[in-house]
Write a structure and sequence with these properties.
Layout lengths: L25 H4 L36 E11 L29 H10 L10 H9 L3 E13 L4 H5 L19 H13 L8 E6 L36 E2 L7 E2 H4 L9 E3 L5 H10 L55 H6 L8 E5 H7 L2 E6 L12 E5 L28 E7 L12 E7 L16 E3 L10 E4 L5 E3 L24 E4 L4 E10 L5 E9 L9 E5 L10 E11 L10 E10 L4 E4 L3 E4 L5 E8 L7 E10 L2 E13 L6
Parallel strand pairs: 1-2, 1-3, 3-6, 7-9
Antiparallel strand pairs: 4-5, 8-17, 9-10, 10-11, 11-12, 13-14, 15-16, 16-17, 18-19, 19-23, 20-22, 20-24, 21-23, 24-25
Length: 661
């Protein structure tokens, strides 16, 4: 596997290698080099967490380049005490999950929960998240606790001011209050006007964020709105027990009276999306998510792979465990930021991103480079990601427009500016992403709506290696009937990553004919300490190669099998002028044939990248049986991806031993 721009010593003579292995299980020999293993959010536990080798970004002793001071102001209500102060599992929602905390200790408890590693937060903090994403450039260094303060109004007087809920109050009034002014007034009265001493204020309020309870304590708990019992309904028994909510027509009144978290930053006790709200507040990045519950369905943009989309819900137990207090389950371990967002935040130096031009690729030919998993620092000769600008004549994005009302998988208005490639590995905060592999996406420089019915703000559009319906249950109704995940559910992208090699369960290439680009996932490896790297390639479909290079294949110098299965290696090399100051490599498509009765020959990878003058070793797995012919001829064929007429084959003859069994 090549190392991007690292100089590799040129070999004077080609290497011819041969190994054999004895095994009675041929299928075991054919294990994919990079199998796709999708782990569903619902099935994850804290045991899925894997630290980044050699790095603990939550360590409070690490000082970020940009410090961020926050105040935490905790408030409760006449009708809603802090859930964390109640006896364990005693409230209507089944919380809290730990022994109660005294009311006067609540502000300090939540300050410690969000900023100091502990057993309660499993060692994970909002500072640790931002330090990991920024590589130490940005972190939360102060979270001073204030309160607790008692709000002048009931919770419902603030919570029923959203999404058509204003007229569902118990006393017939119309709810229209925003919480923030009253919170800040109480804080100012107690300690003076010190708000300007902080970069942001985290307002923690007693109760729940509606986003984490509307479904779980609405349509998932009750068969219909008429089945909601009195304890979950409006305190005025003469009024409906249900209430409108953001995404669907109804939820229980108890769930709907809660508020949605905001970028102000306002959060209930169950909220794990503080990091997401900080993305809005501190970096002015918008949401990249859809409404998955209304028709016509519109596919999500980046789903579980980015914190500014539903990747903010990542964590043990998945999205339906976001009601837990304290917030140590779903939404407690948001996904990392995708390459586009890390670049906009200036979290990655320019020299760690390989930036390419579509127009120049049509002249220079294919580019091959290595990408390191995004949770780790790029390894020597490797990159944090690759960007391919859609430059040239307008329109830059030449994808044909389609009708999103008819195609739920439509990205909408074709106005994307560049492709990105990055590697996701389930370590660090990406531990709760559903897969390891290569993430390919189209991106916009500036945020904009994607048009059409149920359109939304979309600036990352992940290319889905499995665009079909994932066909998984979202939840079971109380009558036992399954409710499937809609085609617009963010978890439809759980299997979106690309993988290297054959039989992985995913794709190893993707072609955008309209934009004249072809992407390849060529190979994968792990370093000694377990960090994933992928060798990837991209070429322009408009590149017209010269005839200056030549493919050469040297077969193994072996004549006889010593067991019923063997692993044999060809050496593939390419002659030609080495590119200067550019990741070099020609991309070849490989195939294997065998001529012999009852013999088998298999490749684990049908792609190969060869740097000029550097041979690439290609493994072939061969097997025979007691009834096989005495000899077989094995032929490896390589076809230049840029010039299909450039085809080279090489063969060797193999004899079966007389006494093999």
């Amino acid at each position: 596997m090549k190392r991007g721009l690292t100089t590799i010593c040129m070999l004077v003579t080609a290497c011819i290698a041969f190994t054999q292995q004895s095994t009675t299980d041929h299928n075991r020999s054919l294990k994919p080099i990079d199998p796709q293993v999708v782990r569903d959010q619902d099935d994850m536990t804290w045991d899925d967490y894997r630290p980044i080798p050699g790095k603990n970004w939550a360590d409070p002793s690490l000082i970020p380049q940009r410090t961020f001071r926050m105040a935490l102001v905790a408030v409760d209500f006449p009708d809603q005490p802090f859930v964390i102060t109640l006896p364990r599992h005693s409230d209507l929602f089944g919380n809290p999950q730990i022994e109660p905390v005294k009311r006067e200790d609540v502000p300090e408890f939540y300050s410690d929960f969000w900023l100091k590693p502990s057993a309660v937060n499993h060692g994970q903090t909002i500072n640790g998240y931002w330090m990991e994403q920024s590589r130490g450039k940005f972190g939360i260094t102060v979270l001073d606790a204030f309160g607790p303060y008692r709000m002048p109004k009931n919770l419902w007087e603030y919570g029923l001011n959203e999404y058509g809920q204003n007229n569902s109050t118990p006393d017939g009034s119309r709810a229209s209050s925003r919480m923030e002014p009253d919170v800040d007034a109480l804080w100012k009265a107690a300690v003076g006007d010190i708000k300007k001493q902080y970069d942001a204020v985290l307002r923690i309020y007693a109760g729940y964020d509606e986003t984490g309870v509307w479904q779980e304590f609405g349509e998932m708990k009750f068969l219909s709105k008429d089945d909601i019992p009195a304890e979950w309904g409006n305190p005025d028994a003469s009024k409906p027990r249900w209430i409108p909510t953001r995404y669907v027509p109804w939820t229980s009144w108890k769930a709907g009276q809660m508020q949605w978290g905001l970028s102000s930053i306002r959060q209930g006790e169950n909220s794990g999306t503080i990091t997401h709200e900080l993305g809005h507040y501190a970096f002015r990045i918008g949401d990249n998510n859809n409404n998955p519950y209304v028709q016509p369905y519109r596919r999500v943009g980046s789903g579980p792979w980015d914190m500014m989309d539903r990747g903010s819900f990542n964590g043990p137990g998945g999205p339906h465990m976001r009601w837990v207090i304290p917030a140590a389950m779903g939404a407690s371990m948001p996904a990392g930021l995708m390459l586009r967002n890390r670049m906009i935040n200036v979290f990655i130096p320019e020299n760690q991103v390989l930036t390419l031009s579509r127009e120049k690729l049509a002249v220079t030919g294919p580019i091959v480079a290595t990408i390191t998993a995004r949770a780790a620092e790029p390894l020597p000769g490797s990159f944090a990601g690759i960007v391919v600008r859609l430059d040239g004549e307008e329109p830059h994005d030449r994808t044909p427009a389609d009708d999103p009302s008819l195609n739920p998988l439509s990205p909408g208005i074709p106005n994307f500016d560049f492709y990105s490639l990055e590697v996701v590995q389930r370590i660090g905060y990406d531990s709760f992403c559903p897969d390891n592999g290569v993430l390919l996406a189209k991106n916009k420089d500036k945020e904009s709506r994607n048009g059409g019915p149920n359109g939304y703000n979309c600036f990352n559009w992940v290319i889905d290696a499995h665009p079909g319906d994932i066909n998984m249950v979202d939840y079971y109704r109380t009558d036992g009937k399954p409710v499937m995940r809609t085609i617009a559910d963010y978890r439809q992208l759980n299997d979106a990553l690309f993988h290297a090699g054959l039989n992985s369960g995913s794709l190893f290439e993707w072609e955008d004919t309209s934009n004249r680009l072809h992407f390849y996932i060529i190979d994968q490896r792990k370093t000694d300490d377990g960090i994933l790297e992928y060798e990837v390639g991209v070429r322009s479909l408009d590149y017209k190669p010269a005839d200056g290079s030549k493919i050469n294949i040297i077969p193994p110098g072996v004549k006889k099998m010593s067991s019923l299965t063997g692993k044999y290696t060809f050496s593939v090399s390419s002659s030609g002028e080495k590119k200067v100051d550019s990741p070099d490599g020609n991309i070849y498509r490989l195939s294997i044939t065998i001529n012999g009765k009852d013999w088998n020959a298999d490749l684990l990878n049908s792609l190969c990248s060869v740097e000029s003058g550097i041979p690439e070793i290609i493994e072939v797995l061969v097997s025979c049986g007691n009834t096989s012919s005495r000899t077989a001829e094995i032929t490896l064929t390589a076809i230049d991806e840029c010039n299909p007429l450039k085809v080279v084959s090489s063969s060797f003859r193999l004899k079966r031993g007389r006494n093999l069994k």
